[in-house]
Write a structure and sequence with these properties.
single chain; 3-stranded antiparallel beta sheet; 1 helix
């Protein structure tokens, strides 16, 4: 199947802030390219960061021997999901610096 992404994603570091991230195509028909932080969020943190342009993703892993997969946490996502939840990556604001 040439030209088709494996979907397993790439775990790497952000080139700007060096945070660990996961890049992956999510979806079957109209896939989204998602860059997610790998830091798990508590339910309280999820409510604080969730917004119209910042989604929460379930980091599903079938077994320890398979690659983690991102799943959207929509209305049909179970409330008692045992998997870690992560969010879209955003670099922290940089501190102002002087040019001299």
């Amino acid at each position: 199947m040439a030209g088709r992404a494996s979907g397993s994603g790439t775990t790497t570091r952000c080139s700007s802030c060096s945070a660990p991230i996961l890049r992956q195509l999510v979806g079957h028909v109209a896939a989204l390219t998602v860059t997610a932080d790998l830091t798990p969020l508590t339910p309280t943190e999820q409510m604080q960061v969730r917004g119209p342009n910042r989604l929460i993703w379930c980091l599903y892993q079938r077994s320890p021997h398979t690659a983690p997969r991102l799943r959207w946490t929509g209305t049909d996502h179970p409330a008692a999901c045992p998997h870690p939840h992560v969010t879209d990556h955003r670099c922290p604001p940089q501190q102002p610096s002087t040019l001299f």
